[in-house]
Amino acid sequence: MRKILFTAALLTSLFSYSQEEKTKDIEEVKMTKKVLQKKSDRLVFDVAASPIAKGNNAFDLLKETPLVSSTDDKNIKISGKSNAVIFINGRKSNMNADALESFLKSMPAENIAKIEVITVPGSEYHVESSDGIINIILKKKLTDGTNGNLRFGNTQAKRNSQNASASINFRKNKLAISSNFNSRNTFRDQQYTLKNGDANFNNTSVGYVRNNDLDLGGYVNVDYDLTEKQNIGLSYNSWYSETKDAQSNLLNTLLYRDDNNVTKTTYNRAVNNMNARDFNNSINLNYEAKLDDKGSKINLNAAYLNFTKAQQNINVTTITDVLGNNISEVGKFRQEIPQNIDNLSTTLDFTKVFKNFTLSTGGNFNKTKTDNDTYLERFHYPSQTYIKDINQSNHFVYDEKIGGIYANAEKNFGEKFSAKIGARLEFTDSYGEILNTNINVKRNNTNLLPTVNLNYTINKNNSLSYAFTSRVKRPSFWEINPERVYLTEINYIQNNPFVKASSVYNQELMYMYKNSYFLQISDSYTKDATTQVPLQRTIKNSDGENVKELRYIRTNYGSENNFSVNLGMNKNFFNQIWTANYVLGLQVNSFKGTVDTDPITGEKFAPFHANGSMTTPFLQLSNNIRLSSKKDWFLGVNYFYLGKQRIDLGILDPISSLDFSVKKIWNDFTFAVDFRDVLNTNWVTINSIQTDGNYNYIDQNQYNRRFNLSITYNFGNKKLKKARSIDGAADEIKNRTGN
To answer: Is the dihedral of CA 20, 21, 23, 24 positive or negative?
Structure first.
């Protein structure tokens, strides 16, 4: 059912006591000129020097960070990038998407010192494709003790959802422990209108998709100081998700035409009921040794990850009248979609710091095995029994080994110019097979991925930087599992084991003025780009009538180029009463490619052309206003607008959202109220018309207009020294398990 939400990924676009107070005010005034800085390969947002951290959580703070945005209040993105990978204190967060969202929304923003936005990551980072990095640097705490926070939240959209979390940190001498537990009961509703066909036939599907997800998760990090310069750490992450009685319910109207005259109309209803549960567990052992006081160090990781998923679907098709009343049942099937992923990973990183020169090198290796045994049986009405559908049942196994080594050299040439060059060499050996068939895929690839970063400080007010990097984007494991998810009897989503990895080349030029204004020009070119290509053809249904079959097939379709120009400002006004984070941008999305064949069956379809380009405006306005001199009342007014744009599926109509928030801080409590998408304009509409007359239309209302209420309570020693945040060797693999 979650894969039905594919359009969401298109967005998926597009930031004494009185004496002490006087001293703090003076410090803040001194630091406001350096709230935003360009350093080496990253943009640094100094949260400690900004007033917007008061009463915020980490997720909301990220949305108010320059070049960072969220259009769905779930996924964080960097402008010009397809995804943002979250790091904590320089180490990749070892959580899946749902757990990370909950973690960020439960972390008080006051714990954060800086946020670093790395738009073009270097060779040392294990990230893919056009992904950018957001590195959250926590404040240093100096004493032993215990602290933590409790957070409760309630969201009212079409239905009511609840969430709660608890975090606790403990420090005693050489031992540090941090832990978090969170739970969510989330109702997600979507209203759909789907249309496809040509001049002679039209299929219109109208209905809803609804999910009820219960999520439970958390982590425990244990860190021990072996010596003054050596640490060993163990981290365990767990996430359980259960979907109960999810349903898609679509009423389908089929129109047959002859010379633009309707000759026949039929109606049917397709209902899919789904129950699913998945477990995501990982454990990571880390050793870190500081080799000197300049920053030289060695870091070792070993990890094990297991992801297990079970999903059951029951699909029923019924003939109806014009009002949608059921007449007779004509089709039914049951589907089991289990998946198991096992991964072992190791990483080694070494950094040596010399005078004005830094050398870093390292490597990684991971071995992954997946097992996907899809089973589908159709109901045989004469015998009143289910019979296995051999064509739609398959047992797909996939083994993958990835090894990589990298080297970087960074040097400062005086005070004004610095350069960083590097390269990563990756080796991939994979084999997938649908058992008991002759369908298999084997790949053995070697990729050399260079990176370059140049920085020039013109003077104290002006700086200029350029970056280039190349990456490989591998498909997620669920994308290569050859299963089908049915929307209607003739409209379904098909995954594909033959999807190739994409090659991505990123460039960026950035100019910064007075640490408050910036101009960013970026370009990302993707070779062998992938999407869910909508392929159509005319077939005969069970009644012998001609209908348009529509398959959304996950496959490579050609090339994609995304060019963007962003002009931004992050500035405080009126003695930090008003903080403004504005971005005005233009993006040009270009696509080139054609697909006319199902890559699994070899069946031919009418060609789908992804050719075309379009220039799209983008506007993001984030305002944080302090309402009281005591700094305990805050008002947020945020707005974003993304104009009509070309995407791989067609043309996405403009979307926008106006949001308001009010926060009240009272002692150790923070009360927050948010109104999202007040004007109800965050709504997805996609049109695609091919040269042969085939068309495809998607209208998706995700009920983004919502009201959020949260209460956070912070307790314990506020100066507690934090445990190290440890990256996991299996992080890159974990990111490919979610869907």
So the answer is: positive
Task: Give pTM, 2 decimals.
Answer: 0.84
Query: Which amino acid belongs to residue 565?
Result: V
CA–CA gap between residue 147 and residue 162 (Å, rounded): 24
Single-letter amino acid code for the residue at 79: S
255 within 8 A of 228, measured Cβ to Cβ: no
Instruction: Give CA–CA dist 573/560, Å, rounded.
Output: 41
Note the pLDDT of residue 130. 53
Question: Phi and psi for 106 in degrees, rounded to 5?
Answer: -100, -5
DSSP-derived 3-state class of residue 737: coil
Count, residues in the chain: 739
* pLDDT tens figures, 615-670: 999 999 999 999 999 889 999 999 999 999 999 889 999 999 999 999 999 998 98
Paired strand residues for 711: 152, 671
pLDDT of residue 49: 66
The answer to whether 282 and 303 are in contact (CB under 8 A) is: yes
Q: Tell which residue, 309, 311, 330, 310, has the closest CA to residue 319.
A: 330
pLDDT tens-place string over residues 250-275: 999 999 888 778 788 999 999 999 99
CA neighbor of 497 nearest in space, from 598, 593, 596: 598
Residues of the chain falling short of pLDDT 50: 1-33, 723
CA angle 676, 679, 683 (to 5 degrees): 80
Beta strands per DSSP E along 291-389: 297-320, 326-336, 339-354, 357-380, 385-388
